[in-house]
Amino acid sequence: MKKFAAIIDGKEFTVSSEFSVHNPATGEVVGHAPNMAKEELDAAVSAAKTAFVTWSSQSDEFLQAACAAVTAKIEAHSAELAELITLEQGKPLNGLGSRWEMGGAVAWAGYTSGLSLPKKVLQDNEQGKVELHRKPLGVVGSITPWNFPVMIAVWHMLPALRTGNTVVIKPSPYTPLSTLRLVEIMNEVLPPGVVNVVTGDDKAFNLGGAMSSHPDIRKIVFTGSCATGQKVMQSAADTMKRLTLELGGNDAGIVLPDAVPEQIAEGLFWGAFLNNGQTCAAMKRLYVHESIHDAVCDALVAYAKNIHVGNGLDEKSMLGPVQNRMQFDKVARLVADAKGRGKVLMGGEPSEGLFFPPTIISGLHNGDPLVDEEQFGPVLPIIRYSDVEEAVRMANDSPNGLGGSVWSSDKAAARVIASRLECGSVWINKHGAIQPNAPFGGVKASGIGVEFSEEGLAEYTDIQVVFA
């Protein structure tokens, strides 16, 4: 069984302690990662801080070329990384699985490489010249989740590198192997210390907490739960770190009465069940007008019955297992409670191991745990409504505000409803379709700041205004 090494200052960094990483489809150990502590984190931060002096002074053209070289390396190793993702995360190689994730990672890396933040001339007249410059922050700490281990790592690291920052990244203990290999690959074309990776099982030592309070880390970019994001924000306060927090969502979809059930069933399914529902911007609750409620339920169930669930290494699989026992138990708890409140249209019974079938439950209401809590798994509650005003009110009745969607045959009418949803992104007749040229982030408890595009790139910089 392969032991993966961390990369600090461009070199393999081994420690005496390690932890096992398991395939959620089989329970088998697929690799071992270093279990690192404060000394290793300090070494990684020190290497990044030293490398920043030279890296931050490079020209914009140099940084762009370096990021393009990183993109080419990632693309060249896409098949290898996709298999690692499937082994440790569980998602299928096929369909909207790990190969699709790697395609997204390459696309985001390539697009980000081509972005730039040139200086702006705010004034140039007889009173003087005023320029706005974007300057790199320093060491960026990246803390990534287990649902998209490579793509989210790319979302964090490439804009940091493109703007002249250096990086220390900590992946989830559930999925560290693909990130360890990713950073090893990146270091083949980057100077030592520019990107460093630390891993740990978070049992004896809280690496993430140590990063968010570390005095030499200038910014934390974190993707994960609201509860953990709040802790990151609290521990970052003493050092006044910059923060980008992409936190949980409990995204609502609203189906208007003029929608055609058979035409939207596929989009509804993948909007909710992409990555087995383990997606921050997945649709977590669906409000359907009473006039087409039953038809939408029937169309969704009919489509879902064709989805093969199994081991991600099986090319027939379109969905895999829930990634870890803690998440599986949460999904099972919410479904068990919902059974006594609504009607199970499909699924509802856990399978062997960590497999949970796509589950659709109707007859639920706001206030029911499966509707109010982010399930982050392969379950969709469907709520009947009679008045569009009621649907908007129920959709907005959440502390979260990451994404939302409206489904209708009349796009103009859908846009009017969409504008009233309290969320950072809203889609018409689709859900969760993010892209690198559009800013992405949440409102309310779903986060601070945005990722992607020029707006996301700017979050890795300080503004300096020069008066001359």
UniProtKB/TrEMBL annotation:
One protein family per Pfam: Aldedh
Keyword Membrane set for record: no
Aldehyde dehydrogenase domain location: 17-466
SUPFAM superfamilies linked to this entry: ALDH-like
InterPro entries: Ald_DH/histidinol_DH, Ald_DH_C, Ald_DH_CS_CYS, Ald_DH_CS_GLU, Ald_DH_N, Aldehyde_DH_dom, LUC3-like
Keyword Oxidoreductase among UniProt keywords: yes
Lineage top rank: taxon: Bacteria
Active-site residues (renumbered): E246
Keywords: Oxidoreductase
Family to which the UniProt record says this protein belongs: Belongs to the aldehyde dehydrogenase family.
The protein's name: Aldehyde dehydrogenase family protein
Taxonomic source organism: Rhizobium helianthi
